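Example record used in the benchmark description.
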Amino acid sequence: MLEQNEKEKIEQLCKESRLNIVKMVYNAQSGHIGGALSAVELLTVLFHKCMKTCPKWSDDKNFEKRDRFVLSKGHASSALYCVLSQLGYFPEEELMTFRLFGSRLQGHPAPFCPGVDAATGSLGQGLSMACGMAWGLKLDKIPANVFVLIGDGELQEGNVWEGFMHAAQQGLDNLVAIIDRNRLQIDGCTENIKSLEPLADKIKAFGWDVTEIDGHDINQIYDAYEKAKANNKPAAIIANTVKGKGVSFMENNAGWHGKAPNKEDYEKALKELVY
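Model output (structure tokens):
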């Protein structure tokens, strides 16, 4: 559990990110706002408190020892960019170039952006990429972890379950899969499209340790990450979240999966996030 002052700092950083996500998507008139807002706490706690990061990528001494991160749900890139800017990977002002021509901050992350370890966007592939990274770190005897954030909609892809199988077979105890369980995908509720439940039991059956948490509770998130890092098998964290979290008319609304707000919605969202 975090100290109260640490928790309050994380809460403030989350507020800043939510405000910036709305501004970024509105400015670009393009982006996936709902799934970015649902992942804010998960990314903020991870990068600020639980990962070994290396904002200065020219720092050879610490670069190879850093933890790796894969944003499998690459369409939530705006949330990742907010956290990277907070850590100093690039200036905060650059956030407003999101999805613009020539920007390093494209709609799906790619390694030409500082802090991005893997290009993602085609859903279902991130866990397999993370498995490769984790396996490589073990072969090279580098004591680092690999974290991968997966959307629950992409769990309907068969490649994800191959990744679960492979990680357990290879004993990748340096791998942590974080599932953003907001229960909504572009076409509606995950359970109506292709049911995932009982999700925890399914992942456990593949040989993983599984923890289920409130994905907006900062202390639960922190404790789950620390437990996962100390595990002796691959660890999955099912984080129950709210799509569009923080903006009332976007919350639990699949219509805000990949839609930019108009001027009226933008101003309404800003009022809710600022006050």
